[in-house]
Design goal:
Layout: H1 2-5, H2 9-27, H3 39-49, H4 57-64, H5 68-80, E1 84-89, E2 92-100, H6 102-123, H7 128-148
Antiparallel strand pairs: 1-2
């Protein structure tokens, strides 16, 4: 029965995604005190990669496709951990941009090491041609799903 599901792209992608998530969680266990929340590295990484720009909560909501209340909770947690802080902007008193702290930068660099290690493991044994084909096929699959939404 299990073998039958391997014929389905959606089941295979889901199973592979779950396996990658578990592997990433194991690799990040040293830097994450809450294994259940793998969104923290994504949020901090986004802020880190856009530190020359103003990043706001709405950007995180759009990035992760989450509700305002969910984003607020996650950002409050990151702020309590000292990884980010909110800073008012001069042009709108209601807005507060998200700024990464030195501790957040250190966290991000450790997370990037974990991500790069896993990425090397995932790519191991694959040729450039195979990777090119994989990304092309994956792009088509994503487009097929988007067309249906």
């Amino acid at each position: 029965m299990v073998g039958e599901y391997q014929k389905y792209i959606s089941f295979s992608l889901h199973a592979t995604s779950q396996q990658i998530k578990r592997s990433m969680a194991a690799k990040m266990s040293d830097i994450l005190d809450d294994k259940a929340n793998m969104m923290q590295p994504r949020i901090i990484g986004y802020i880190y990669n856009h530190k020359e720009e103003d990043v706001f909560q709405k950007d995180i909501e759009e990035l992760l496709k989450i509700r305002r209340s969910t984003a607020t909770g996650m950002l409050n947690t990151l702020e309590k951990k000292g990884l980010i802080h909110r800073k008012p902007v001069s042009y709108d008193a209601r807005l507060k941009k998200l700024v990464i702290t030195p501790e957040g930068i250190e966290f991000t660099e450790k997370a990037l090491d974990c991500i790069n290690t896993l990425e090397s493991q995932v790519r191991s044994g694959l040729t450039e041609e195979e990777l090119e084909i994989f990304f092309r096929v994956l792009s088509k699959i994503k487009k097929n799903i988007e067309d249906d939404e």
